[in-house]
Design goal:
Strands 1, 2, 3, 4, 5 and 6 form a six-stranded mixed sheet that branches. The chain is globular, with a radius of gyration of 17 Å. The chain is of the alpha/beta class and 178 residues long. The chain is built from seven helices and six strands; from the N terminus they run ββαβαβαβαβααα. Helix 4 (100-116) links the parallel strand 5 (90-97) and strand 6 (121-126). It has a single domain, classed as HUPs (Rossmann fold, 3-Layer(aba) Sandwich). The structure holds 4'-phosphopantetheine.
């Protein structure tokens, strides 16, 4: 194991709201698992968003989505990313970058975390091209209008979302005449 300032550099946190987890998130987790000894997916509060799913529901969606990855696990934390990182002795915060508009927020977050915990490195992975447009909000918007989301999220997550909006895809006869 490699250490710097007493923290294990090979443990990476992948923090986020994951409301819900998408195939874009999974892409980052799978690629992170090839780079780090352990990737901890951690569901954290984002005060600027009102979640559709409870933390327990999100954990329940993430767990089966990453069960094929031996070096990934999932957890939740009610507090700062840096405090959780210290608790887990993680040296890296892993984040995905999709488009230029992500950059400002991500850079700010990386700087804030660096001021709070200088020993923590933020590592960005560029999201794979096929998921560069994908966000949890977009998935929810499509589903809220009864559109298809099976190509954007794992199947069990698609079911949860459709249940939430009281819609199915393809629409049943009753839904399509509404
Ligand atoms: O998936 P998101 O919503 O872009 O993830 C943002 C998240 C949850 C990683 C961020 O809001 C966060 O780190 N929240 C925990 C509180 C914290 O540490 N705030 C200071 C850094 S912004």
């Amino acid at each position: 194991m490699v250490y710097r300032s007493g923290v294990a550099l090979l443990i990476a946190l992948y923090p986020g709201s994951f409301d819900p987890i998408t195939l874009g998130h999974l892409d980052i987790i799978e690629r992170g698992c090839r780079l780090f000894e352990l990737v901890i997916v951690v569901v954290l509060p984002n005060r600027s968003k009102s979640p559709l799913f409870s933390v327990e529901q999100r954990l329940g969606q993430i767990r089966p989505s990453i069960s094929h990855l031996a070096n990934a696990k999932v957890d939740s934390f009610e507090g700062l990313t840096v405090d959780y990182a210290r608790q887990m002795k993680a040296g890296v915060v892993l984040r995905g970058l999709r488009v230029l508009s992500d950059f400002e927020k991500e850079l700010q977050m990386a700087h804030v975390n660096a001021t709070l915990a200088g020993e923590l490195e933020t590592v960005f992975l560029v999201t794979s091209t096929e998921y560069s447009f994908l966000s949890s909000s977009l998935v929810k918007e499509i589903a809220s209008f009864g559109g298809p989301i099976h190509h954007l999220v794992p199947p069990h997550v698609a079911l949860d979302i459709h249940k939430c909006y009281g819609k199915t895809f393809p629409p049943t006869k009753t839904e399509s005449v509404q």
